[in-house]
Amino acid sequence: MKWFRKKDEQPIKPSIKQHQSEKLIQLGSQLASLRQEKNLTLDELVLFTRIPRRLLQAIEEGNLSDLPEPIYIQGLIRQFADALGIKGREFASHFPIGYQPVAFKSTWKNQNIAQFRPIHLYLFYIVLIFCSVNSLSHLLNNATLQSNNRQIQSKTAQPLTEQETSSNKQPSSKQDQSVQVGVTLKPTFRTPNCHRGKLRREKIKESIKTNI
């Protein structure tokens, strides 16, 4: 049982906040000692760095709660160190931001992506070209079908118009013929009536003469 307990009892790792506060105290004390060696005040550093006095004082005292995000704290430490004449980028890199595990995972993922990237790109380009060719052929087929349908409709419409015009002409010609026939037949029907009237008149005259 004691062996299991020893195995379960693992050393507790300090949190990132604790590590940042410890490093800030260490770096701040170094910057404060350098400033005092150069006989510079915080107000003079404010003029050099354009950083507010309360932030410079918080860096020297290691007061993490009065400072902004860790990435900004690193930038402030870099400017502070540059103003004191030391390499600010190298000095500020000792302050942990808290992205080390994420960076390790991202590099591993980037390596895997770099390994599979060419194949995926080739497949993507092939699929893209295939889809574009199919869409273009589909559009061209639709355009040709529409043009053919229009030609067929125009061809079928022309005979119909010709038939309508011919059918419209035929009744008019028939009417003209009927009118002409009626005009020509009227004299033929009138001549017999005239002769009959004359004959009747002559008969009446003869009958009158005989009676006299």
In which range does the helix fraction lie? Answer: over 70%
Q: CATH top level of the domain at 15-98?
A: Mainly Alpha
CATH topology title of the domain at 15-98: 434 Repressor (Amino-terminal Domain)
Instruction: Please tally the helical runs, counting DSSP H or I stretches of 4 or more residues.
Output: 7
Shape: rod-shaped
Uncertain segments: 100-107, 173-189
Report on the biggest sheet.
Answer: none
Ends distance: 179 Å
Class computed from helices, strands and strand pairing: mainly alpha
* Second CATH tier, the architecture of the domain at 15-98: Orthogonal Bundle
Order of helices and strands: HHHHHHH
| Total beta-strand segments | 0
Relative strand content:
under 5%
State mean pLDDT (0 to 100 scale): 74
Gyration radius from CA atoms, angstroms: 58 Å
Protein name: HTH cro/C1-type domain-containing protein
InterPro entries: Bact_Cytoskel_RodZ, Cro/C1-type_HTH, Lambda_DNA-bd_dom_sf
GO molecular function: DNA binding
Transmembrane segments: 119-140
What does this protein look like?
The protein has 212 residues and is mostly helical. The chain has a domain of 84 residues: 434 Repressor (Amino-terminal Domain), CATH 1.10.260. Helix content is 83%, strand content 0%. It has 7 helices and no strands. The longest helix is centred in the C-terminal third of the chain and has 112 residues. The protein starts with a helix and ends with a helix. About 12% of the residues have low confidence. It comes from Dolichospermum planctonicum. Keywords: Membrane, Transmembrane, Transmembrane helix.
